[in-house]
Amino acid sequence: MPSVTHDDAPPLADLMPWSVAPPRLGRGWPSGPDAATLKARWDAFVKAEGPDRETLLEPTRSRTLHSAVGQLPGQDTGTEKLARASGPCPDPVRVLHAPFDEQWLIPDHRLIDVARPELWRVRDEHQVFVLETPESRLLAASALPLLRPGRVRPLYRRPGGTEPNLAPGLLDHLRDRLGTPVEPLDLLAWTLAAVRPDLTVPLTADPGLWARGVESGHRALWLMRRNGDRPKLPGGRRPYVRAPLPSRPLTLEYDREEETLLLGEGRISPVPPEAWDYEVAGVKVLEQWFTARVTEPEPGTLAAIRPATWPQAWTSELLELITVLALLAELQPLDEELTSPVTTTDLRRAGVLPVPGTARRPASVLDGHEEGPEGQLTLI
User: Fold this and answer.
1) What is the per-residue pLDDT for 133?
2) Nearest alpha-carbon partner for 187 in 134, 178, 285, 26
3) For residues 282 and 285, what is the distance between their CA atoms, to the nearest angstrom?
4) Angle at CA 277, nearest 5°, toward 216 and 246?
5) Confidence (pLDDT) at 142
6) What's the CA gap between 259 and 253, in Å, rounded?
7) How many Å apart are CA 309 and CA 323, to the nearest integer?
8) 111: nearest Cα among 303, 335, 268, 327
9) What is residue 157's predicted lDDT score, i.e. its pLDDT?
10) 147: helix, coil or strand?
11) How many CA atoms lie within 13 Å of 26's alpha carbon, on the beta-carbon side?
């Protein structure tokens, strides 16, 4: 973790004041690592009738077959009650199911106990979701995060990468102190590089230190978001499948001496120890990723509908995940002494802090209609 320190460093909660608790699904079957499987689950659900459909839904106090809810922002799904639902499955969307584990979700409000529509309204190709993880580093993702229990802090308060979720006046103050342009993504990059375990973020007016931190943070941001060019390790260090994976690998082991990942009889190497050891909140990322794909679901549930064999796409995703973790582990912490600190006291004197109450709430008006229950239109 970064060791840049200062006793008067501002909290992340003041620098990025609007935060939202993550969505809570309430049932596991509408999400999973394979989009085709989700469509098969939906088909089985709408083919069932009466008590069978109710059982398959796995109803909660928040969602039953008779709950009346509107569409999720930006999604074209039915709004009739699930008791009468029919037709094809809504197109699944990418979500961050666990640290560095992008999976798929049926984006139907009727299937999600607490969907957080305010996050869906600002979800687009420009958005970056910052996630607080207990006793661990910050994560950043382009996909809508489902991780609990931390807070989600979108970088932008509106679609299109407009109105950054930053303390009003903060960017201008840093530009004046540094004498260099500072964009929202630059401040986020610095935050990823410098944030402390207590979620305070030391800031600096030293242009050289700032540039080094921003450079490191931008690389971490690129690796975490995994958009654009695909990350690659140097030629001799790239992981490959050395022995074919079985149709359904049930065990995952690591040979540290051989730097080999063993999935049943399958073998992937080289896998750097740093990738195998990479943890978030005390959990090995690779083990968690694998477990999510091989854990046996309860028979008779919709979650029991899953690929009959290990898809090739999962192997490709695993190879990329190994690469990402290895490259993240190579990033050097920002361990320089903090020079020219920009403190909480400085920000208060400049009028940047305290932030107004409106900055801690979602943008109040968005130009768009959202379909409410039973086809009614709602203006947001």
Assistant:
1) 87
2) 178
3) 9
4) 120
5) 96
6) 11
7) 24
8) 303
9) 97
10) coil
11) 16
Contacts of 293 by beta carbon, 8 Å cutoff, 6+ apart: 33, 310, 314
> Which pLDDT tens digit goes with each residue over 6-57?
579 999 999 999 999 999 999 999 999 999 999 999 999 999 999 999 999 9
What pLDDT score does 367 carry?
Answer: 56
Yes or no: say if 202 and 209 are a contact pair by the CB < 8 Å rule: no
d(CA 29, CA 89): 13
Structure confidence by residue, pLDDT tens digits, 245-274? 999 999 999 999 999 999 999 999 999 999
Residue with the larger pLDDT of the pair 148 and 295? 295
**CB 37 within 8 Å of CB 370:** no
Beta strands in 216-270 (DSSP E): 240-243, 252-255, 260-263, 266-269
User: Beta strand 93-98 with 101-105: parallel, antiparallel or unpaired?
Assistant: antiparallel
How much is the pTM? 0.93
Per-residue pLDDT of 47-100, as tens digits, reads: 999 999 999 999 999 999 999 999 999 999 999 999 999 999 999 999 999 999
> What is the per-residue burial (b if ≥16 Cβ within 10 Å, else e) of 299-335?
eeebbebbbeebeeebbebbbbbbbbbbbbeeeeebe
- Cα distances (angstroms) measured from residue 202 to each of 84, 90, 165, 270, 337: 54, 44, 18, 37, 11
Best CA proximity match to 290, nearest among 307, 314, 312: 314
User: What is the residue whose two structure tokens read 């549930």?
Assistant: 301
| Tokens encoding 307 | 């690929």
Query: What would the two tokens of residue 156 be?
Result: 């932008």
Tokens of residue 85, six digits: 């639902």
Note the pLDDT of residue 135: 75
**Is the pLDDT assigned to residue 369 strictly greater than 60?**
yes
Q: Are 1 and 76 in contact (CB under 8 A)?
A: no
Q: Going by DSSP bridges, is the β-strand pair 93-98/144-145 parallel, antiparallel, or unpaired? A: parallel
| Pair of tokens at residue 242 | 């050395």
What's residue 229's pLDDT? 77
Query: Residue 380 above 60 pLDDT?
Result: no
> Phi/psi class of residue 199: alpha, beta or left (left: φ > 0; alpha: ψ in -120 to 50)?
left
